[in-house]
Amino acid sequence: MSRHVAIVTDSTAYLPQRAMERHGITAVPLTVVLGDQALEEGTEISARSLALALQKRRPVTTSRPSPEQFAAAYRAAADAGATAIVSLHLSAEFSGTYDAAVLAAKEAPVPVRVVDTGMVAMALGFCALSAAEAAEAGGTVDEAVAAAEKRAASTAAYFYVDTLDYLRRGGRIGAAQALLGSALAVKPLLELDGGRIELLEKVRTASKAIARLEEIVAARAGTSRVDIAVHHLAAPERAAALAERLRERVPGLGELHVSEVGAVIGAHTGPGLLGAVVSPR
């Protein structure tokens, strides 16, 4: 049997379904706890349902997949012919997902390399795609991991949120927490830095913040060959408009993905989120 390296990630990668099917990538779901209901992201709760719950101020929390869920995914990959697995996950600063995958990897029927990418959303998704492409080209586990880590090192993610309140509740704003008091009075722009969400800039109005987000993304892309993902939660018009402007402004644009984030990320950012991931090829 020829050697086959399978790629596993988690549901916060927000990869297009067609891309997952084309590359044979498996996503293990995180859980959203809505009131007394534990619901799997992507199958049992939609982003729209989550946004409505947040707007009604219903209690929402999130939790990692269990090690048993990862174990099942690893067994399924081995049963399908994989002789090794690369398991790529959102930043361990955000979630215990990486730790659960590490526990499951110890009992897997084939070798598993678990990687904390330090990324989230399509910043993680682009890493998984690079690893899958390396594996499809006949690459080893080390080569697939190296491809993912190289992509992560060059990828940037920026976010606009209407309020930092949701991030404050979840304790996921890192060093920006020190600026929370003043930042709540304006419109914050955030970035993914060192696996944490940090405050990048404070802008006076939503329209100016979104215009500034566009400027930052276009400048980061420059003239290089890049893929871009635009994410939103309950803000499809904002996302479509930003994507169209970036299409015009980024000369080296490769793939452009526009998608609503899932319930896990949405629970920590709140409705109105607008984000952009810039990922050089």
Task: Give a concise summary.
This protein has 281 residues and is α/β, with parallel strands linked by helices. 41% of the residues lie in helices and 26% in strands.
Key features of this structure:
281 residues, alpha/beta, six-stranded mixed beta sheet, four-stranded parallel beta sheet, 26% strand
Describe the structure.
With 281 residues, this protein is an alpha/beta fold. It is 41% helix and 26% strand. It has helices spanning 17-23, 47-55, 67-79, 97-105, 122-136, 141-154, 165-170, 180-183, 206-221, 236-249, 263-269; strands at 5-10, 26-28, 31-34, 37-40, 60-63, 84-89, 112-116, 156-160, 187-193, 196-203, 226-232, 253-260, 274-280. A 6-stranded mixed β-sheet has the order 10-9-8-13-11-12, with helices on both faces. Helix 4 links the parallel strand 6 (84-89) and strand 7 (112-116). Helix 5 packs antiparallel against helix 6 (141-154) and helix 9 runs parallel beside helix 10 (236-249). The longest helix is centred in the last third of the chain and has 16 residues, at 206-221. The two termini are 31 Å apart. The mean pLDDT is 89.
Helical content band = 40-55%
Number of helices: 11
- Major β-sheet, in short? 6 strands, mixed
- What distance separates the N and C termini? 31 Å
**Quaternary:** single chain
| Derived structural class | alpha/beta
The SSE order reads EHEEEHEHEHEHHEHHEEHEHEHE
